[in-house]
Amino acid sequence: MEISSASPKKKNFIYEIIDDDLQTNKWKGDVHTRFPPEPNGYLHIGHAKSIFLNYGISEDFHGKFNLRFDDTNPSKEEQEYVDSIIEDVKWLGADFEKRIFFASDYFDQMYQLAVELIKKGKAYVCDLNGDEIRSSRGTLTEPGKESPFRNRSIEENLNLFQRMRTGEFRDGEKTLRAKIDMASPNINLRDPIMYRIVHEEHQRQGKKWCIYPTYDWAHGLEDSIEKITHSICTLEFENHRPLYDWFLNELGMHHPQQIEFARLNLNYTVMSKRKLLQLVKDNYVDDWDDPRMPTISGLRRRGYTSEALKDFTESIGVAKRDAMTDISLLEFSIRNDLNKRAQRAMAVLRPLKIVITNYPEDQVEELEAVNNPEDASMGKRVLPFSREIFIEQTDFMENPPKGFHRLIPGGEVRLRYAYIIRCDEAIKNETGEVVELYCSFYPDTKSGTGTSTKKVKGTIHWVSASQAVSVEVRLYERLFTIENPASDENWLSFLNPNSVEIITGALVEPSLSKAKIGEHIQFERNGYFCVDSKYAINERLVFNRTVTLKDSWRPKK
RNA sequence: UGCCGGGUCGUCUAAUGGUAGGACAACGCCCUUUGGAGGCGUCUGCGGAGGUUCGAAUCCUCCCUCGGCAGCCA
């Protein structure tokens, strides 16, 4: 636990801004942030960065944090997304207490404020259609043309706007626009649209409305109504800030400060909701929570912990420069976390049978194994050992490269927690494939006895044949084969065909038969795994590989 | 040809006129009954050119370069 000080330590440029505001008493000591997702998809790790940033600020400065759904577009939003977002935000540990809000609950208020703007002569109803508005907006280098409806009387605007609301017009027939400056070098200020007509049922408001506010009009109002002090968003809204400020200034309302930071980009994946939706809809992945997805739900199912996600977002920092973060930083965070909390177990992914020829036929020994060498309080367990065991196929090589420390013909290796064995004979099938090993063991080399005079380079994991439990294991690789798939319009062609490998004949030690859904376990020498929540049928266990162990072994030439 | 915002090790990020540092990655070595973990070490960076200054990543000028913006999406 850290000692909280009046002025939290400087973490990034946003903390500096807030520090200054506190110094100058700009907000009378208040710090109030929010996370404002649109419920049009599942949250991803980029959202986690924003959530931890906003929630972290509220914690560090003893302020408040709101969860607010920016549900202003009924054609894209669904209740399923609202539910998943609430679950994910809670799972991340961002405590919004009772402060969960919906922009749609402010629609009446927003409507009244729009009327107010019309009365000030700062907004007008425009009859131009979409094409006409676009063509009259001008270009990046040329000013736009003023709408012929720009100078309607206040009375006419009031009347028309009211009739827009009551459903007298068809979709797209009219809009309400702010009257700002069609020649502004900032295109967002060229009489932006505040309301559009959409005859569509809203997931929370039903058929109450057929006009819906646009982001630019709505967002500042939402922040203002909730008395947000620091409205933190991503860089692409930088050009919208003058408009955010314009609306709030004209209305003379509480005026939060918008601050932009660079969104998270991770290599070898995509982060836009549109692309993630396409992966789901077109069945390139199983669902939003597919363990290969960068979604919060996907990462959770994959075995990531919220603590690791938080640690990751803190380690990458917050700044204004566009960045492409290497996935290895994320992997470091999860390994670091799981190393401390995951119980160890023996699991053989691709079994190779060994018969220990000098071990008694019917004998079963119980060997003691530590559950976590990092944490003695996690205790010990018992492993059965017998004449027939399985080891990893990759732990035996007939013609090993230099530096190979595992089993080779005539070579010796230690079986973790058990004995040192020697490989006497490799049995092959008709195609020359090694299918079984005959080995002998040295009785005085039992782990923990200290009676062994032998030294071996390698220690390998194993499971006892008769007690092992058969499970399914899913190994995941990066979803895309290139670092930045989003930069290519043929991004789907870079999907990794080997992003998941399903192994049905893996064998694990018997203690794992009691493993619970979501439990994190390290398969020694293999990686961190997590009991899957979806694929398991009946008694069958399915393990997702969260991440491999760091592997410093490189065959020398 | 417009406006806005950026450019510091391979990656991410500090330094706020005073020794360019950390983390990840990589590579060595040590240790190890997980080729895990841990320990030690090495490597590599201020986009460029001028200027101000005793002193510049930091201030000024110019250049180069990258990103965003022309939805009735957010």
Provide an overview of this structure.
There is one protein chain. The chain is of the alpha/beta class and 557 residues long. Strand 1 (32-35), helix 2 and strand 2 (64-69) form a beta-alpha-beta unit. The two termini are 49 Å apart. The protein has twelve helices and 25 strands. The model is unreliable at 1-6 (pLDDT under 50). It has helices at 13-24, 45-60, 79-92, 107-119, 130-136, 154-165, 215-225, 241-251, 273-281, 296-302, 306-316, 327-341; strands spanning 32-35, 64-69, 100-102, 123-126, 175-178, 193-197, 211-213, 230-234, 257-261, 343-345, 347-348, 351-356, 365-370, 380-385, 388-392, 412-415, 420-428, 434-441, 459-460, 462-464, 469-476, 500-508, 520-523, 527-531, 542-548.
Write out key terms for the chains shown.
alpha/beta, 25% helix, seven-stranded mixed beta sheet, RNA-binding
Mean pLDDT across the residues is 95
Ranges where pLDDT stays below 50 over 5 or more residues in a row are 1-6
- Estimate what percentage of residues fall within beta strands: 15-25%
Structural class: alpha/beta
Count of alpha and pi helical runs: 12
Oligomer: single chain
Strand order of the largest sheet: 10-23-24-25-21-22-11
Q: Which of globular, elongated, flat, extended, rod-shaped describes the shape? A: elongated
Radius of gyration based on Cα positions: 31 Å
Largest beta-sheet details: 7 strands, mixed
Helix residue percentage: 10-25%
